[in-house]
Amino acid sequence: MAQAKADILIVDDTQANLSILTLMLSERGYRTRPAINGQVALKIVQNTRPDLILLDIMMPGLDGYEVCRQLKANEKTRDIPVIFISALSDVLDKVKAFGVGGVDYITKPFEAQEVLARVETHLALQVVHRRMQDELTLAREIQYGLLPLACPNWPHLDVKCFTRPAREIGGDFYAYHDFELGIFKTTNPKYAIAVGDVSGKGVSAALLMAASLSQFDASFSQNLTPTERLAYLDKAIATYTKPRKQNCAMCYVEIEVRSKDINEDTLTPYSLLPTSISIVNAGCIPPYIKRVTGAVENPEIGGFALGQELSGATGYQHLDLTLHKGDMVILVSDGVVEAHNTQGGMVGFESMITLIQNAPTSSAEDMLTYLKQAILAFTGNAEQHDDMTIVVARV
Range of 94's domain? Predict the structure, then answer.
């Protein structure tokens, strides 16, 4: 039996309790390890991770509550189920036990059948949890295997992409397209870049992310303007979103690099020719544009998120701007701007502009690396509730 191989750590400052619990569990085939206090228990756990911990509350030095807090604060030990054991039976003590991360509570004196039943239940739940984690890890690998390379090899545009889910699987994505490699080629080199953010979390968001990414790629089988493309996507993913009341926010840009023709002044260096950017936004963060002069712009352009079939009535705004050699375009999901630290502080729009102003502009990778490091340094160990995606393009 799988349970016979389970390793259980028993923590109690009373030798008699250790002996009783060890005998109960050993007779059922469990491997047991005793710890006479909280400090010893923490050392044991760091050396060899048990499958479950039986933890006394009232102990000298570190009590059970503090031991559990430290276990849950450590990424390596936070998933170990902790069952508290105590002579206390007050409701407030049980509430506190669950509040620090315990999964169950056993009151002394011990009833053998109760102890065994609770141990078996939580070991079985742990097996299910591990299987789910394995499946989520596989799902994450498959999901992010759908994304294109983080660094497309484009001759006229330096691009670097990054995405990080808040949990095992998420709903953020980035996507891009080189029109030269598509059906509808353009006179000048032209590229499309998008950042998407699917509402919701977990498996449903991951599946909608995959559907949105697929429909984005499929849209290039048609000759569409930027506003028409988002209207197309609004309808295309509605089949998936409307029954579940989900949507997909997206910021979409097309960057066209102007080329010389025979009627133009051939003395003008190619690098000085202006580049155009077309911006359409569907409920996402508008792009940041860092000019080669150092100025940072965040043009106001919005629209309803995709998948609600509102484009027929409202349409999408369209904004054209000019870029010059060295200008940078930064697309982010709202999880970046809303990233928070342990004190509850948030990155925010103003700080994002300051970060971009201070970031290096020598390459898309340098800009992206600076932003990632600054944001992750700000958030520290705070658990994030939203995915983070950043795409940087340098002309």
Answer: 2-134
pLDDT digits (tens, 9 = 90+) for 157-197: 999 999 988 776 778 999 999 999 989 888 899 999 999 99
Q: Looking at 109-113, 132-136, 389-393, which range is the least confident one?
A: 132-136
Q: Do 191 and 311 lie in a common domain? A: yes
**pLDDT-based confidence at 1, cuts 50/70/90?**
very low
The number of distinct structural domains making up the chain is 2
The answer to whether position 139 is within a domain reads no
Burial of 43 (0-12, 13-18, 19+ CB in 10 A): exposed
> Looking at the chain, how many residues does it have?
395
Note the pLDDT of residue 267. Answer: 46
Nearest CA to 72 among 339, 376, 387, 383? 383
Looking at the structure, do residues 113 and 151 belong to the same domain, yes or no? no
With respect to residue 236, please indicate whether it lies within any of the assigned structural domains: yes
